[in-house]
Predict the structure.
Amino acid sequence: MKLRRQLAAAAATAAVLMLVPSAVATASPDKHPKVPADSLRALGAQQKLGIGTAVDDARLGSDRAYTDLVANQFSVVTAENAMKWESVEPARGSYDWAAADRLVSFAGQHGQQVRGHTLLWHNQLPSWLTTGVDDGTVTKGQLREILRKHVTDEVTHFRGRIWQWDVANEVFANSWDPNPLPDGLNGDDFWIRNLGEGVVADVFRWAHQADPKALLFYNDYNISGQDGTNAKFRAVHDFVAKLRAQGVPIDGVGEQGHLDTQYGFDAQRFQADLQSYGDLGLKVAVTEADVRTFVNNSTEQVPTSQPAAFAQPFEFSEMLKGCQLVDQCISFTAWGVYDGDSWIPGTFAGTGYGLLYDVDKAPKPAYYALQQDLRLGARPQKH
Ligand code: XIL
């Protein structure tokens, strides 16, 4: 994608461009007729980059302002929770696809692509499953068969309608996890512990059988330059390289992109690591971007430090630019629409202000930073 390479050159002319902000926004190839020309999705489309958000099914359709933002600003949607195992099979053998189906049909109506999230993960498993494993009523042999059926049934249900699937999620050890396996997988992970590390390759094979056209991703956090020694990146890189060499059907790596301004962020390392995955012949996506910081309280979410308030849009922008500058990076997704509906305050005490729109759904500096990055990346070169 030649246009993307022009970003670096175009960045030098940012000041000039700011005088004519709508010059490149008028000829959007985004297929959906009602999309504003200066929206993130229209600007992303000019360089074949999907711009996504995680969607809360409780708000989609019922909250008009929220729904309009999802439709107008984003070309890719991910179900924040609705495709997770506990949501789709709350009681054993009885599926509930309603919320996920609503999102997939919304995406169809609005010319959007869907990231499926997620098939193999240790969190948000149905309690009938975890209880059964704990009390021994579900044996290991049965667990493997239950997982195979889950992957097959879910991927089959959405066959032909999912662009990228997060097939396996967060199975690698962090520096603080006590029992890493020699290749870096987390020995304490529910699935690795119960079924062995071969289960990761198996879920990719099962997913591929059920929908041969979907792009199959490995998805994780702190796997592109964020973890100090970069050991987690190295482990994931070598593992996915091995899967490919073995002919396992894996198509991409998703870097979640959950940042916090209190930690350092090395944008060059981020980009270089995305590129390393790309150099393996894999596609790359930033799948769950948000940048949290300390705030006054979880309702207003006003940053408590002025430098941190500047770092927030800066780090968001650096992540997008890293993706724009890697040819294999096909989508950039924010983990939610606005700060009033984000997992951050409830998960990381004292923090918030992580998304592109504020608690009142007004665009923040991070939104304008991304819009500007996309304009620059899409801008035809002079001379
Ligand atoms: C989070 C959701 O945002 C929350 O609403 C839910 O309560 C917990 O899960 N990594 C992932 C996502 O892969 O699925 C998680 O989403 C955030 C971390």
Observations:
- Residues 3-378 form a domain with the TIM Barrel fold (CATH 3.20.20.80).
